[in-house]
Write a structure and sequence with these properties.
By secondary structure, the chain is an all-alpha fold. Helix content is 75%, strand content 1%. It has 19 helices and two strands. Helix 1 packs across helix 9, helix 6 packs antiparallel against helix 15 and helix 11 packs across helix 19. The longest helix is centred in the C-terminal third of the chain and has 38 residues. The mean pLDDT is 91. It binds 4-fluoro-L-phenylalanine (PFF). The site of 4-fluoro-L-phenylalanine has 15 residues, from helix 1, helix 2, helix 11 and helix 15. 4-fluoro-L-phenylalanine binds next to helix 1, helix 2, helix 11 and helix 15.
């Protein structure tokens, strides 16, 4: 059955921006610099880009095809495309569970970014000594109440947009936030590249150091590519059921991947030159890079030009907030679409109930920086465990699942019809795509996965 107008993206550009909104997020601006910084810079980036092209784009395009063909939430799409095999419908539940997990811990960091944007806007970072930024961050993140309040604000805002629906909420949100995000990022790159010592940061980003590369680095690069493109959790599968039939899925997949990679690289060109502009700071500070190192950098990098420091930090944290919101919207939409279509529940009701569940799990993740810091699962805090589970296990596993599904379960003719829009576009690219999905990607994912976990 054809969807009603308001439950589809109105325009092709709206569809690309929404999918790019899902892809561009904290993964690009917070996780990518962190991973790059701790895994040896350019060598890591090269492997990451390779995974984007070889595995990321084909898997993303597959999610698009399954979603648009199924024309319903993820479990139904699996059911329809497998010609009614119930077992595949249950497999489609895995992404829904993964969506809960990812939103819960993602929203914690999104809450931090919102708090930092507010503090930056109130000029709360100026005049601090370098060590005070770290104390500021640890006392905030380990607080029992404050980060949870910001987590609730982020999740409720996300729920409000999702409740408004596909066209009025998600598409309109993406059409406003994504262009703003690009403007902010370009302004910030220009400012950062003019800082003294910027060339050292550029060098770090562009000169590969392969001595730091091992199995774990390769798994991290693959995890980062999947995380950054939002593949393996089927958010894009859900978005694709709102795509019009004339959308060229391979073209859109490539556009999203290019936008996503550009934003990640530009985030690197903002952060590393800035870090190297202050002697003694290191690019491998890990997750605290954005919340401890950068506020310090922003205050000191521009010398006496205080207003520039102010603008730089406000824009940077607003950039993070918008990027985080467009991604969390896609995570919640996948969950809401499932309950809405499976149980015929109203979108606003499901949006609120799912948000409450995410807030509860998110609160546990948040407390793992404070009173629950000694609660560990497999040697990791609750937050780190969720990140590990999502980026290193569930996303690769989900990606493997979708490759096996599209390559071996779904009829080739159905994939062909969906990806070529009935034989009109991409006819020559399809065989290459199909070989990757059937053989290269599943074997590659399995090998890297076991190698990264130290099993082969
Ligand atoms: N791609 C998003 C980012 O880079 O921040 C994160 C993400 C969104 C992961 C949606 C998973 C997902 F399903």
């Amino acid at each position: 059955m054809e969807r009603k107008g308001s439950s589809m993206f109105a325009t092709k550009i709206g569809a690309i921006l929404a999918a790019a909104g899902s892809a561009v997020g904290l993964g690009n601006i917070w996780r990518f610099p962190t991973e790059t910084g701790t895994n040896g810079g350019a060598a890591f980036i090269l492997i990451y880009v390779l995974f984007m092209i070889l595995f990321g784009v084909p898997i993303m395009v597959t999610e698009f095809a399954v979603g648009r063909y199924g024309n319903k939430d993820v479990t139904h799409s699996f059911l329809t495309m497998s010609d009614g095999k119930k077992w595949w419908k249950y497999m489609g539940l895995m992404p829904v569970v993964a969506g809960f997990l990812v939103l819960s811990y993602y929203a914690v960091v999104a809450g931090w970014t919102l708090y930092y944007a507010v503090v930056a806007a109130l000029d709360g970072f100026s005049g601090k000594e370098p060590h005070e930024y770290s104390e500021f961050f640890s006392s905030f993140a380990s607080d029992e109440v404050k980060p949870i309040v910001w987590l609730v604000v982020v999740v409720m805002f996300t729920a409000a947009i999702v409740a408004l629906g596909v066209r009025r909420g998600i598409e309109r949100g993406a059409r406003i936030m994504m262009p703003l995000l690009f403007v902010f990022i370009v302004v910030l790159v220009v400012c950062s590249m003019t800082l003294p010592g910027a060339s050292q940061g550029v060098d770090f980003l562009l000169r590969p150091d392969f001595s730091k590369v091992n199995g774990a680095t390769v798994l991290s690069a693959m995890g980062q590519a999947f995380f950054s493109l939002s593949v393996g959790i089927c958010c894009l599968c859900t978005y694709a059921c709102y795509f019009r039939k004339d959308v060229n899925l391979i073209h859109d997949g490539l556009s999203v991947a290019i936008i996503d990679t550009l934003v990640a690289l530009m985030a690197g060109f903002i952060i590393f030159p800035a870090v190297y502009s202050i002697p003694g700071l290191s690019p491998d500070a890990g997750p605290s890079l954005v919340f401890v190192t950068l506020p310090n950098v922003f205050q000191h990098a521009f010398g006496d030009v205080v207003w520039l420091s102010y603008i730089f930090s406000v824009l940077f944290y607003l950039l993070l907030v918008m990027a985080a919101l467009t991604s969390s919207i896609s995570m919640l939409e996948m969950i809401v679409a499932f309950f809405h279509e499976e149980y015929r529940a109203s979108r606003p009701l499901v949006a609120v109930l799912s948000s409450v569940a995410c807030i509860c799990l998110g609160a546990l993740c948040s407390l793992s920086f404070g009173s629950l810091s000694d609660v560990t699962l497999f040697g990791m805090t609750i937050f780190d465990f969720c990140d590990f589970l999502v980026a290193k296990l569930l996303m690769p596993a989900g990606s493997l699942l979708i490759c096996v599904f599209a390559g071996w379960v779904v009829k080739r003719d159905n994939m062909y019809a969906e990806l070529t829009n009935g034989g009109v576009v991409n006819r020559y690219v399809f065989p290459v795509y199909y070989a990757i999905i059937r053989y290269v990607a599943p074997i590659g994912i399995l090998l890297i996965f076991f190698n990264g976990l130290g099993l082969v």
